[in-house]
Amino acid sequence: MNTASLRRWAWIHKWSSLVCTIFMLLLCLTGLPLIFHHEIGHLLGTEVEAPEMAADTPRVSMDKVMEVAKARHPGLVGMFASQEEDDDRVWFVTLSSTPTSETGMKQVAIDARTGEALAEPKLDEGFMYIMFKLHVDLFAGLPGMLFLGFMGILLIVAIISGVVLYGPFMKKLKFGTVRDQRSSRLKWLDLHNLLGIVTLSWLLIVGATGVINTWADLLVKYWQYDQMAEMIAPYKGKPPLTELGSLQKAVDAAIALEPSMKMGFIAFPGTTFSSPHHYGIFMRGTEPLTSRLFKPVLVDAKTSEVTDSRVLPWYLTTLLVSQPLHFGDYGGRPMQILWAILDLMTIVVLGSGLYLWFVRRKTNEARMEKLIQAHQA
C-alpha cells in the first residue's frame, strides 16, 4: 500500500473514530449494567419474585389474570401480557388509557398459578430504566435511535480502517508488543492497537447488531404495512368492537394451532402488534435459538377463532436474533462475563484513542508555537 493510500485510510480512521467515540463510550458504559440487568434487578429489589410451588401447579385462566390487573387500575385497558422467557410463573400485564397510548402506562405482575397481584413494576424510573433509555435512544425516541445507529455505522468504518492500518503498523513489531519503556504516548498507542485487534470480532458483532436494533421501530412499522395489513385485510371497514371475547379461549386456540410452541406475549386489540379486531398471540419456540423467534397467531377477539398465522419475514427474524446477541443473552453466565470483559476492553480502546488524539494535538500545537517563535525571532 503506497503512502497516499495509507494517509487516506488514516484520515478515515481518525475522523470516523473521533466523531463516534464519545457516544460509543456512553453505549459501553450503559451497556455494561444491561448485560447483568436481572442480577442488578435482584440486588436492587426490583425483580418480581414468584413464590415457590410445585412445578405442575395449575395455571389460572387468562380472563382471571386480566380481571385482577384491571381491578388494580380501573378505567385502563390492556395493551400487552407477557412472561419471562425462562419463567412462566408470572404474567406481566401492561395497561394504559388507550391501546396505543405510551404515556401513563401501568404494569401489574400477577402470579399465573394463584391469580394474585405480586407487584407493580415501575416502567419509567429507576437506575436500570435510565441506563436502558440512554443506551437505546438517548431519551430522544426514534431520532435518538437513528442517530445512535449512524454512530454505529461510523464505528464499523473505524474498525475496518483500523484493520487496514494495523498490517503496515505491525510489520516492524511482534504481535502483542507494548513498548512500555518508551514514551507514554507510544505505550498507549501499542495498547490501543493490541486491544483493538483483540476485540475486533466482538466489536463488529456488537456494532452491527446495535445498528440493526436501532432500526427496530422502522422494521416493525414496515411489517405492519406489509404483512399485518394482509393478515387483517378481511376486517377492513368493520366497526370497532365494543366488547371483547374470552382471552383464555383465544389463547387456547393459538396453542391448539401451535402445540409444539409456548406462549411468548399477547397483544390486545388496537395495539401495534394486533388489529382493532384481534388478539395477537405470539408463540415462540422451545430451543435456545427458536425461543427468541416469534410466530404471530391472530385470533378474532369476539369469536376466538384463528384468522391467520404466518412466519415472521426475514428482516424481523434478523432483528430478533440480533437483540440477544447484542447483549450476550445466548450463553448464560459465561457469555455474560465474556461480554462484560470485552466491553471493558473496548472502553480502554475508546479512551486510549481519545488520549492519543489529545496528546498528538497538543504536540502539534507546541511545535507550531515553536515555529512561530522562531519565525518572530
TrEMBL record:
The record, for InterPro entries, names: PepSY (IPR025711), PepSY-ass_TM (IPR005625)
Q: Which UniProt keywords apply?
A: Membrane, Transmembrane, Transmembrane helix
* Keyword Transmembrane attributed: yes
Transmembrane is among the record's keywords? yes
Q: Where do the PepSY domain residues begin and end?
A: 60-119
> Per the UniProt record, which residue ranges are transmembrane?
12-36, 145-170, 191-216, 337-358
Which top-rank group of organisms is this from?
A: Bacteria
Q: Kindly provide the name given to this protein in its UniProt entry.
A: PepSY-associated TM helix domain-containing protein
Organism, by scientific name, is: Herminiimonas aquatilis
Organismal lineage: Bacteria, Pseudomonadati, Pseudomonadota, Betaproteobacteria, Burkholderiales
